[in-house]
Amino acid sequence: MNVRKLIAALLLASGFGASSAEAASYYTLEPCRAVDTRNLSSGILEGNQWHVYPLRGQCGIPLDAQAVVLHLTAVAPSPPVPVDPLPPISHEGFLMIRDSGIPRPTTYLPSNLNWGAGETRVINNGLHVPMISGSHNVEVYAGYGPAQPGVHITVDVVGYYR
Q1: Phi, psi of 161 (to 5 degrees)
Q2: Global pTM?
Q3: What is the CATH number of domain 25-161?
């Protein structure tokens, strides 16, 4: 399936009009880090919670973008001083990323990124996230037990559709 048809299907499944979905064109951007929880006051992602991050005005994403293309990375909690190699993630888990302005799923949470205990960095390249609500925010669900130490994430923007 080509990328244009994939985005059209995603936009249609999200309730976006067929004519707009079919007319979407892809635009590349220089990779740009939009979110890095290691540098935010909100810090590490707590388990089994939604976390909202604004994309409005970041990384060259226009306000009329219908979808963004992202790289999502889970990173182990880091000690105060960077070490090499990175410490491993101590638990299994998953992340889901989506447009924050549409209703949240209540029964099934499809994951965009999964990791196992002992991994240090897990990346999912080329996630296509429809941005049809106009909120220009993404939200991330971190799925793992609340007693776990959590993970950090990075979100890099590499393109958009409009």
Answers
A1: -115, 140
A2: 0.76
A3: 2.60.120
Question: For residue range 2-54, what is the model confidence (pLDDT) as tens digits?
Answer: 555 555 555 555 544 444 446 689 999 999 999 999 888 878 888 888 899 99
Q: Rounded CA gap, 37 and 42, in Å?
A: 7
Q: Using the CB atoms, write b or e for 84-123: b if 16+ within 10 Å.
A: eeeeebebebbbbbbbbeeeeeeeeeeebbebeeeeeebe
Which string of DSSP letters, residue by residue, matches 66-91?
A: SEEEEEEEEEPPPPSS--SSPPPP-S
Nearest Cα residue to 138 out of 71, 92, 91: 71
Judged by DSSP in three states, 147 sits in coil
Task: Return the domain boundaries, the chain.
Answer: 25-161
Q: Which two tokens stand for residue 9?
A: 């299907």
